[in-house]
Amino acid sequence: MVLFQALYNLLWGDLVTIPLPGGSSLGLSLLVLILVPAGLYFTVRTRFLPFRLFPEMFRVTMEKNTSSREGISGLQALIVSTACRVGMGNLVGVVAAISAGGAGAVFWMWLMALIGSSTAFVEATLAQIYKEKDPLYGGWRGGPAYYLHHLFVPKGSRRRRSVLAALFALSGLVCWCGISQVIGNTISASFENAFHLPPLWSTVVLVAIAAVVVLRKNATVRVLDVVVPVMAACYFFITLFIIVKNAGQLPAVFGRIFSEAFGLRQVAGGGLGAVITNGAKRGLFSNEAGSGSAPCAAAAAHISHPAKAGLVQALGVFIDTIVICSCSAMIMLLTPSTLTDGLEGMDLLQTAMQYHLGEFGAVFIAVILWLFSFSTFLGVLFYARSNVAYLFGDNWLSQTLYKVVALAMLFVGGLAAYQFVWDLGDVGIGLMTVFNMIALVPLAPKALAALKDYEKNVPPK
Q1: Taking the complete model, does pTM exceed 0.85, yes or no?
Q2: How many other C-beta atoms are found inside a 10 Å radius of the C-beta of residue 453?
């Protein structure tokens, strides 16, 4: 337990502390120290891809490229990764960032998304380059475990596994089990608050529906094809309605965001460090760029050029942070602070929605959180496929056993919250990021070469 806590502190604690004017300080965790420099490096090496090729990201995503026996389409890969990125963190996580860091945290959240887009491009492109045929589910599979394997196992070697690749796969499976418990707990708590439903009832229904989907071969993508666009569109248009309704406040809201991001008041009050830290962490870990999760979906896409998968996933970072996280931020910042003072988490968000939409607001948040969380559960089990196969080989027994374990964690989480399991999920994603980044820098030239080839031979239309 002491070793686990030390590992948690190493990954998520303030490894470096930088003093700032006004008596505040900027704490930087190991993951921030890894992801921010890497994101800047990839942004420069791709010649500022998020800005330069932004229209091309949309064009590639909307190409007519339907799924087949050869794998899912690029758009479906984006839907799967968006299901995981656009989760409860986009609701509760953004609320927590603003509560701790103020409106200025939103600016740093946006900045991290722009940096993260380039990282997402590199890891998704590598996942396509090193993907393999999937004999169980059909189509393709891959991700960091597979390109880590190619990096450390010489071509022609009979070694079936690389130590670092196996550690990545194991970290992912641990992380996704932890996330399953968090999902169960969050859904049961929100439904108890909104509808006064006993946690057991909502949990049994959730697990039953999830089991019907995940225990059927290839049903996950078909369900996500429907759920993800509907939930994202509903949340976006409800937020758009709230923004239009409060249009007169927008100049003041954006003024707060930019002034508090660098403001003299934050410096003088010793709060600038909290603004930057909370915004940066929320931006980095909401969009998951660099964690190695989304490449597990990108590898499954049947797509004509590896760089296209990278462009699609780079757009996914934009959708997650610039669009969905900003929706949560606007809902919060357009609510009078007198109503939300002293509140946190779901209570704070539900209060904000009640202010804007009356009793319907609290119900809407509970339902949309259910959809966000349910789609995240389906998405992480899709990610788990390739990692289970890397560790245990191609057999239905190991695939089914992992799904049963994840469903059990979903059930347990619905009835009670175990902090150790929550921390286990955080450690899992932290280790995934470390192992993934070990491969990204040395293999980046492969992704950059794919981008150069794409721009030379497949010019934007």
Answers
A1: yes
A2: 13
Strand, helix or coil for residue 86: coil
Q: What is the pLDDT of residues 260-291, one digit of tens each?
A: 776 644 444 344 444 455 555 555 556 678 88
Angstrom distances, CA of residue 411 to CA of 49, 372, 427, 457: 42, 17, 21, 50
Domain 21-457: assigned CATH number: 1.20.1740
| Gap between the Cα atoms of 356 and 350, Å rounded | 10
Sequence-ordered alpha helix ranges (H) in 393-461: 396-415, 419-457
Provide the residue ranges of all domains of the chain, joining segments of one domain with +: 21-457
Greatest extent of the chain over all pairs of C-alpha atoms, in Å? 66
Which residue's entry shows tokens 């600016």?
107
Q: Work out the number of other CB atoms within 10 angstroms of the CB of residue 212.
A: 11
Task: Give the pLDDT confidence of 318-354 residue by residue, as tens digits.
Answer: 888 788 888 888 888 888 877 777 666 667 777 888 8
Share of the chain above pLDDT 90, in %: 24
Angle at 5 between CA 373 and CA 401, to 5 degrees: 45
Please give the share of the chain, as a percent, with pLDDT higher than 70: 84
Contact 368, 187 (CB under 8 A): no
